[in-house]
Amino acid sequence: MNKSKFVAIGVLLVMAIVFVMTTCFRGGKKDKAKDLPPGTHAVTVVDITQTSNYTYLQVEENDAKFWIAVVKRDAKKGDVIYYKQAMEMKNFASRELGKTFPSVYFVQDPSDKLIVPVKPEAPQAMTPKKAEIIRRTDISVKVPQGGISIAELYKNRDKYAGKPIVVRGVITKYNDKIMQKNWVHIQDGTDFSGKFDLAVTTSDSLTVGATVTFRGIIALNRDFGAGYVYEIIMEQAKSGDITR
């Protein structure tokens, strides 16, 4: 065998090895994606922007880059974040950053670890972050003059549907500037059949821990899409008599 034939065979062998390795690598990547539970995203952080309430992350998934937003957290480039629930906001303007995102996904359930359910999850309408709304046993708020308690609202929900009411409670959760609204959850220490939390939308800026009186319109079974379904919600609320 002459030298030129030997070189040619060597080149072919190298090309074959590269092809096999590339095929295996790609196949492994696909297999990894197949291991994710249905509907689960695994994204890698490539850029980070912090604000007072949110952490904006540019991430990569399947060679595509996009922005997500999570409640403020520590993050570094290369981190892998898993999630299933996210709501896309297009042309979202962040006043704090002075920047408009063409598209950003507000992630409700970010996790550093992949959680594999024991059984497939059945499709169901659910209140965002319902699992994180815990009853505060230290809250006891007096019913405001001319108002009602949260327990009374749930007990006679049909009576108050579409009507303005007054309630007072402690803010246990607050998210601002989502769908041009600020989203509040309050508790007053009362409950009816295990229902103790009331969701409120308002244009007023508020803080967690404040005790606030709200006047707004009651709506039932409001579906905002992306899993945002509320059995009862107070809308167009105005706040007053705020104590901290």
Task: Please provide a written account of the structure.
The strands form 2 sheets. Strands 4-1-2-3-6-5 form a 6-stranded mixed sheet, with no helix packed on it. Strands 7-8-9-11-10 form a 5-stranded mixed barrel. The protein starts with a helix and ends with a strand. With 244 residues, it is an alpha+beta fold. It is elongated. It has helices at residues 3-34, 150-155, 157-160, and strands at residues 41-50, 54-61, 64-71, 80-83, 86-94, 99-107, 164-178, 181-187, 198-202, 211-223, 229-243. The chain is built from 3 helices and 11 strands, in the order H-E-E-E-E-E-E-H-H-E-E-E-E-E. It has 2 domains: 41-107; 130-243, OB fold (Dihydrolipoamide Acetyltransferase, E2P).
Please specify the SSE layout and strand pairing.
Elements: H1 3-34, E1 41-50, E2 54-61, E3 64-71, E4 80-83, E5 86-94, E6 99-107, H2 150-155, H3 157-160, E7 164-178, E8 181-187, E9 198-202, E10 211-223, E11 229-243
Parallel strand pairs: 3-6, 9-11
Antiparallel strand pairs: 1-2, 1-4, 2-3, 5-6, 7-8, 7-10, 8-9, 10-11
Quick overview of this protein structure:
The chain has 244 residues and is α+β, with helices and mostly antiparallel strands. It is built from 3 helices and 11 strands, in the order αββββββααβββββ.
